[in-house]
Task: inverse folding
């Protein structure tokens, strides 16, 4: 299996069913999954006492297996189950545990608490009694571990279904990542994330994580044009374009050119400025990709520059003001286009293209289908949607990125990767990872210029 695939609850059930159809008993898969989780817990517990909360389903069955494995390893284990096992596999796991099971949690305390109450597949809130039991047990243990998902988190959205749910230190995903592992607000309650493989096969059409890319260095015979000429259309606020240009230079493009109406004295000497009219400047056949939007403005001057880019660019990244100005009738050519909206711009685009969706993920996919663009919906839980239904999820990046100007840096990185030859989905995935890695290397409270200065280090880490 790929460690980067992300499955819905339905896809996960189908993938497990395929194993059962091939002859694997349910209890054997449970032993594999829970056994892998138990090894993680054993290491974390380091000989200390463990309390396991078991529910009635197969997540509870995992809990009984975990309890048995930990007891065999020498840990003192307390099992609490407010409901009896309801599935055949969970009943067999309970039989193999062959130890005491408490119905309530009075007095249960220790070093490590393991939540196996409901896990993945839950779509409704916990009952008041179960939520109270979960919260009480979590409060009386120093270390909290969730199996597959914390109880009370919606699998396919990351929604928090109950108020006051506890936060966990570690969440062990069984078999494959679920959308909730990478989606707020639930993701913020899971602590560290680790994947326990159980032999799940590749699932056709599954979403992916935008994990660390493998970027090849330039070929031995490369030159600046072969590596990619990126043109950035500057507008009313050229500082944003300069930020994007600095990031683009560090992300692999061979040549970054600023197309501006007037020279800007702040432009560094290693960025060429061309002041010819956009239609003339964009006629250069060596241009591999164009970025328009950062600092563009929203007046007639900006509309003219956006129209020129849409009419002539061989490949295009649209960001910021360009997304506000964009209308469906303007997309008249079939060229690779990557749009990089934040949430407000995503909502504006959805209105413009007359698409809807209950979740942010659904809206991004609907917009991609309606427009033909690849949509990088940026934010604390960024995602990438393509018109053919492909979906990628960004891994968490430092929250220090929540500062003005970092979106310009992201747009510059993405445009650079497209100029270097990547398709829009690949460029978006590479850009998300490079952007987050640059932020990790920049430390706390950085400026966008400092972030751009770390992109080169991030690129080196991906070679």
Result:
């Amino acid at each position: 299996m790929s460690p980067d695939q992300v499955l819905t609850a339905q896809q996960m059930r189908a993938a497990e069913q395929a194993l059962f159809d091939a002859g694997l008993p349910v209890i054997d898969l449970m032993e594999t999954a829970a056994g892998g989780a138990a090894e993680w817990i054993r290491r974390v517990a380091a000989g200390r006492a463990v309390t396991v909360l078991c529910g009635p389903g197969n997540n509870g069955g995992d809990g009984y297996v975990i309890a048995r494995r930990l007891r065999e390893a020498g840990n003192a284990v307390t099992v609490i189950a407010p409901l009896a096992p309801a599935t055949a596999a969970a009943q067999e796991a309970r039989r193999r545990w062959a130890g005491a099971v408490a119905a309530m949690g009075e007095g249960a305390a220790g070093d490590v608490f393991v939540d196996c109450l409901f896990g993945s597949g839950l779509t409704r809130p916990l009952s008041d009694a179960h939520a109270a039991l979960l919260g009480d047990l979590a409060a009386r243990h120093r270390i909290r571990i969730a199996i597959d998902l914390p109880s009370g988190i919606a699998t396919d959205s990351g929604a928090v279904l109950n108020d006051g749910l506890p936060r966990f230190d570690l969440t062990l995903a069984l078999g494959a990542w679920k959308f909730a592992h990478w989606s707020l607000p639930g993701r913020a309650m899971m602590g560290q994330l680790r994947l326990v493989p159980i032999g799940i096969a590749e699932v056709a059409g599954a979403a992916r994580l935008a994990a660390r890319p493998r970027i090849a260095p330039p070929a031995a015979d490369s030159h600046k044009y072969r590596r990619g000429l990126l043109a950035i259309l500057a507008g009313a606020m050229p500082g944003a374009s300069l930020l994007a240009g600095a990031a683009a230079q560090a992300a692999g493009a061979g040549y970054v050119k600023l197309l501006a109406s007037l020279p800007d004295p702040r432009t560094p000497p290693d960025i060429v400025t061309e002041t010819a009219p956009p239609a003339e400047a964009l006629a250069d056949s060596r241009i591999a990709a164009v970025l328009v939007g950062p600092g563009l403005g929203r007046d007639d001057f900006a509309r003219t520059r956006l129209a020129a880019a849409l009419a002539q660019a061989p490949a295009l990244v649209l960001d910021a003001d360009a997304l506000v100005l964009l209308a469906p009738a303007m997309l008249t050519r079939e060229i690779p286009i990557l749009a990089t909206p934040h949430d407000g711009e995503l909502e504006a685009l959805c209105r413009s293209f007359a698409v809807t969706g209950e979740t942010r993920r659904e809206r991004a996919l609907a917009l991609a289908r309606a427009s033909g663009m690849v949509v990088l919906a940026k934010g604390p839980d960024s995602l990438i949607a393509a018109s053919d239904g492909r979906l990628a999820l960004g891994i968490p990046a430092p929250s220090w990125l929540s500062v003005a100007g970092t979106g310009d840096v992201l747009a510059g990185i993405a445009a650079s990767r497209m100029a270097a030859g990547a398709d829009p989905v690949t460029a978006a995935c590479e850009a998300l990872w490079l952007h987050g890695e640059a932020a990790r290397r920049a430390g706390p409270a950085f400026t966008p210029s400092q972030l751009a200065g770390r992109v080169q280090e991030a690129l080196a880490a991906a070679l």
Remarks:
- The chain is about 40% helix and 15% strand.
